[in-house]
Automatic annotation (TrEMBL):
<keyword id="KW-0805">Transcription regulation</keyword>
<feature type="domain" description="Cyclic nucleotide-binding">
    <location>
        <begin position="16"/>
        <end position="113"/>
    </location>
</feature>
<dbReference type="Pfam" id="PF13545">
    <property type="entry name" value="HTH_Crp_2"/>
</dbReference>
<dbReference type="GO" id="GO:0003677">
    <property type="term" value="F:DNA binding"/>
</dbReference>
<dbReference type="InterPro" id="IPR012318">
    <property type="entry name" value="HTH_CRP"/>
</dbReference>
<feature type="domain" description="HTH crp-type">
    <location>
        <begin position="159"/>
        <end position="224"/>
    </location>
</feature>
<dbReference type="GO" id="GO:0005829">
    <property type="term" value="C:cytosol"/>
</dbReference>
<dbReference type="GO" id="GO:0003700">
    <property type="term" value="F:DNA-binding transcription factor activity"/>
</dbReference>
<dbReference type="Pfam" id="PF00027">
    <property type="entry name" value="cNMP_binding"/>
</dbReference>
<keyword id="KW-0238">DNA-binding</keyword>
<keyword id="KW-0804">Transcription</keyword>
<dbReference type="InterPro" id="IPR036390">
    <property type="entry name" value="WH_DNA-bd_sf"/>
</dbReference>
<protein>
    <recommendedName>
        <fullName>Crp/Fnr family transcriptional regulator</fullName>
    </recommendedName>
</protein>
<dbReference type="InterPro" id="IPR050397">
    <property type="entry name" value="Env_Response_Regulators"/>
</dbReference>
<dbReference type="InterPro" id="IPR000595">
    <property type="entry name" value="cNMP-bd_dom"/>
</dbReference>
<dbReference type="InterPro" id="IPR014710">
    <property type="entry name" value="RmlC-like_jellyroll"/>
</dbReference>
<dbReference type="InterPro" id="IPR018490">
    <property type="entry name" value="cNMP-bd_dom_sf"/>
</dbReference>
Amino acid sequence: MIDVYKDMNTLTKLNIFSKFPLEHLEHLLKCCGAYYKFYDKNQIVFLQGNKVDSLCIIISGSVSIEKIDILGNNTYMLDIYEGNFFGEQIVLDKPSISPYTYRCSSDCKILCLPFHKKYSTDNCKNTCACRLLFRENLLNEIVENNMLLINKLEILSKKNIREKIMTFLAYESEKYSSNKVKIPFSKSKFAEYLGVNRSSLMRELSNMKNEGIIELNNKTFTIL
């Protein structure tokens, strides 16, 4: 069982627990039977098509979201980081099947909240104040997460590599209000994210640099 006092200051900084008084957060974690799980890099948390048994909040590390199509091809969607979550189906409805594979892209510490386990055992109804506040926060965060996937779909819909790159950079530039963008992954993973070949990506980046469209320093892009 999680020591709710040990990491309380860290947890209250997460958006999903914003506006929570400490006593309400403690109550919520105890009520839903929260616990930590530790994963090694490349270890799978949920496999696509398997049952979701907990809401998972990333405390440290990063998790890759992957989608396997009907032909067995594995598509990298995006990485999520500290403070992000997955498995939200268990809070909003009955436990369901994971639509994606969630694979740790680094060593991870994950807070697991198996809500349905204790709904009827801790004298805490679904409508208690802390659960209602948590659901409100969760819905707000789900909207943000959905925007990431919508942005990814728009990038994939672009006709050529340059359009994909510029669309990605435009989103990141707007997000951080800067013409300097640091990508959070390697060039190989960037190519996977854009749905293109790595050598084709590197060639196009070189062309864009030579044409004075961008400057490139390792993982940092400057839009000129």
